[in-house]
Amino acid sequence: MTNRNNQEANLTRDFEKLDIVFANAGITGRTPIGATDEAVFENVIHINLNGAFFTVNSAAPLLNDNASIIFNGSVHNYLGQAGVAAYATTKGGVVAMARAIAADLAPRNIRVNVVAPGATKTPIWKRGARASISAEQSAKVDDLFSSMVPLGRWAEPEDVAKAVLFLASEDSSYINAVELMVDGGLTGAPFGAPLLRG
Ligand SMILES: NC(=O)c1ccc[n+]([C@@H]2O[C@H](COP(=O)([O-])OP(=O)(O)OC[C@H]3O[C@@H](n4cnc5c(N)ncnc54)[C@H](OP(=O)(O)O)[C@@H]3O)[C@@H](O)[C@H]2O)c1
Hints:
The protein is of the alpha/beta class. The protein has a single domain, classed as NAD(P)-binding Rossmann-like Domain (Rossmann fold, 3-Layer(aba) Sandwich), CATH 3.40.50.720. The protein contains 5 helices and 4 strands; from the N terminus they run αβαβαβααβ. The protein has helices spanning 3-14, 38-59, 85-105, 135-147, 157-168; strands at 18-23, 63-72, 111-117, 179-182. Helix 1 packs across helix 2 and helix 2 (38-59) runs parallel beside helix 3. The longest helix is centred in the first third of the chain and has 22 residues, at 38-59. The relative contact order is 0.14. Bound molecules: NADP nicotinamide-adenine-dinucleotide phosphate (NAP). NADP nicotinamide-adenine-dinucleotide phosphate is lined by residues 24-27, 47, 51, 72, 74, 117, 119-120, 122-124.
């Protein structure tokens, strides 16, 4: 049995039919230019892009008409931060992917959208390079990030979850193929941030 058939069989066993798919899984990873092994780059791409695509690919046959699919993107589609080219590529990629899949699934009235969070308090920030920094350094980074957001704080996971629920629900019944920023204004109004206010 192929891997794809395996995934479909598992999904069918666990959920006969689906109304909502949130393709959330993802990793970060440092990929500075000139110093990155191909395997490290490929791992980020594979988990974040292949993972997102094949989650939805496997779920597609089980989706009810009028279902809703949500991908998890990131402000890194826009920020231009050094050292995260692979991650940023994947987060731009899921937006393009969502648009194409929205066209695939339009005949079934299935909507496909993206949430694009800013820095959100989840365990991802305790992994990789950040796992080894001191509590004091970590608090400094936390404060710096807060000062770059017009709303002056990190996102709580609930801030993102509420946006996902909105896109999953009938409240967003005519919203399709969009990227919804959930970033406290980081990308839309950067000069409103405490760091840059006059
Ligand atoms: N936190 C942020 O600041 C932030 C900002 C923007 C976007 N995002 C995005 O939000 C999503 C969730 O991240 P998070 O912040 O909640 O980080 P997290 O706490 O590290 O969660 C990552 C999730 O992805 C799953 N995952 C990772 N690799 C996987 C693999 N190979 N196969 C299956 N599942 C895998 C993990 O499952 P296990 O626990 O089983 O390993 C975990 O559930 C990601 O797509 C991330 O890029 C996060």
